[in-house]
Amino acid sequence: MSNTVHDYLTSGPTFAEGEVIARIEAFRKRRPRLRDTIVTLAHGAGGKSSAALVDAVFIEAFRNPVLDARGDGGIVTLPGGERMAFSTDSFVVQPLRFPGGSIGHLAVHGTVNDLAMSGAIPSWISAAFVLEEGFPIDELKEIVADMAAAAAAADVQIVTGDTKVVPRGAADGVFITTAGVGVIPAGRRLSADAVREGDRLILSGPMGDHGMAVMLARGDLAIEADIRSDTAAVSGQVESLLAAAPSTRWLRDPTRGGVGTVCNELAQATGLGVVLDEERLPVRPMVNGACEMLGIDPLYVANEGRFLAVVAPEETDAALDALLADAAGEEAAIIGTIVAEPAATVVLRTGFGGTRIVDMLVGDPLPRIC
């Protein structure tokens, strides 16, 4: 136990066991605090440092009811009562092309998927490019062609954009920022507030493919494995899921920080516990082997074509069947249950019958993966 936690739990008078447990739970519910004085790579990893930066700098400055919901997209109500989701994301991955995809694919899929997680039907996207002086035009054309193909497959249009050029060495080739808009069908509401004890947690496919594909593509490691990124638009799968399980509570795509970090965000947002079943977690053998060699837990590896869904117990079978019927969801699985205790905590039930706490990602084990 770190000195910070130890000091917090043991300061003051001696506590009975129940009081110590209560203090532990209270400590775990506290959102990370920003203590850094400079930005580090960890602030972009999607874990504790990212949450602290967003809370202390951006949420604090821009606070409003839409932003405070902390969803993958902002949900706004138009004057006529129609609800719309609006999302934006930037992509700085290296290498720009990797097995299974490219920065162009990610730029479209990332924004389309954020809109889908809000319950919206993605419709329109903007694209802004920051280009480094000296970047090959032919390579730029290939990236743009990937974006066009991804947009057509996701049935969205790229309707506006911007281009900036910076001096050589200032942008690492190309950075892309996309924003998207989608309309939320009437009556559809997805929120952590709707999650209830006894609900089931479903993962739409194997985890960790994208992060490990990008990591190995860099060539810095003496590891060879046939791992391809899972980058894909999930909006079609989401619509199939919602048709089969209309009472679906909540959706989120586990990108930076992976499944483990997103489950912690869910636990903190609901105040409920998440119990994961290790033996049900879908991980491809090659991904699992590469993670073991690198000392990385697959729970924290990024995905770009998967999503988590919390569904009502009575709709679990229908939801899973809907995902399994799709080629992209052939390895979808029920991976956990929402429980009252331990509150605001994620616990993994291991294959040996024990349990361990799954905390939010700390540090940045896989930089520049999206």
From TrEMBL:
Pfam families to which the protein is assigned, alphabetical = AIRS, AIRS_C
- Biological process GO terms, please? protein maturation
Q: Where is the PurM-like N-terminal domain?
A: 72-184
Q: Please list the residue ranges annotated as the PurM-like C-terminal domain.
A: 196-347
**Do you know which PANTHER family this protein is assigned to?**
CARBAMOYL DEHYDRATASE HYPE (PTHR30303:SF0), HYDROGENASE ISOENZYMES FORMATION PROTEIN HYPE (PTHR30303)
Q: NCBIfam families this protein is in?
A: hypE
Write the protein's name: Hydrogenase expression/formation protein HypE
| Originating organism | Pseudonocardia autotrophica
Lineage of this protein's species? Answer: Bacteria, Bacillati, Actinomycetota, Actinomycetes, Pseudonocardiales
